[in-house]
Amino acid sequence: MKIIFRLCFLALLSIYFPTLLIAQKSDTPIPDYPIRKGVSAPFAGFAGSTLIVAGGCNFPDKPAAEGGKKVYYAQVYSLTPGTSSTQWQEQAPLPIPIAYGASVETEEGLVCIGGMNNDSTSTAVYRIGFPQTDSEASQITPLPSLPTGIDNAAAARVGNILYITGGNQPQQEKALYALSTEQPESWDRQTDYPGQLRVQPTLIGTDSSLYLAGGFAFNATDKTCTLATDILRYDPSTQKWSVETSIPPYPDNTPRCLVGSSGIAYGDYLIFTGGVYAPLFKEAMEGRQDDQYLKHEPKWYRFHDDLLVYHTVDKSWRIIPHVPGMAKAGGVLLCKGNTLYMVCGEIKPGIRTSEVPVISLSDILK
Description:
four-stranded antiparallel beta sheet, 4% helix
């Protein structure tokens, strides 16, 4: 079951509105990520002006299609975009190799939560930061552990509270856990999210709300995969969930989902991107693909390269088509200033990339 989760990743986007402006590549590129062949499902985010990437996994020797073994990493690298010498710097490693966790940016550093490797699912939580502003060396600080191991989940922040939900939890629970960054004593269980199970969802935090988008559930008994085609909103002040909106379908009205996609908040907008084509993902999960499934060229999988943009005030959707570098699964979308970064990910099931595309947002949301 988890092998399928790891090989068949994410799903999203592809409606075309020709009147919208297209994202432009930045003139400040970032060097390829140092781990050979790149990684998928790492921790990633900014600590101040410094980009941190940690953990992740890949198939370094042979592709998954040829029976290659997945390798998990503990390496941590940092880079400061826009400097005269923009190069990756290796930092102190994580305590264990790990991937499929969730990460959240805070003023003190990047918080890395849960995840898994070949041995177990993790309860560990760490913060990677630079306590001395004049130092290039990061520091890893343990934070309170999760009450239980969680992988393939999503995390976000509202104010000084960190949240994690979705993913694989014991007994297929749908718990939402919260931790205060001001007094990080323990993770408190909040209101469970309603409806179906959501593995590999996207969670975005704004000033006052959480938005839980997409995800999937797999029933191993009858081998059915159910895709979540909506977005839920959580109000921390009332601790209540509600249905915010439906995810726009494909142009032919086929339902789409946001399985394992990535997203960020940008003012009043939620921006989602990346991921696999929903119908192919569902077929693969249900065993309706043949033994050639992992052997096609990347374009065959139809990983999406569009930006899905939702306005939380107007309750409207816009789509920016064909944004370079976004057609990845298991990548991490980040925003710093008016710039988007898509960190690593896979370009087809089992094949990672070390590229970190940089996209200017200046003209997108006029």
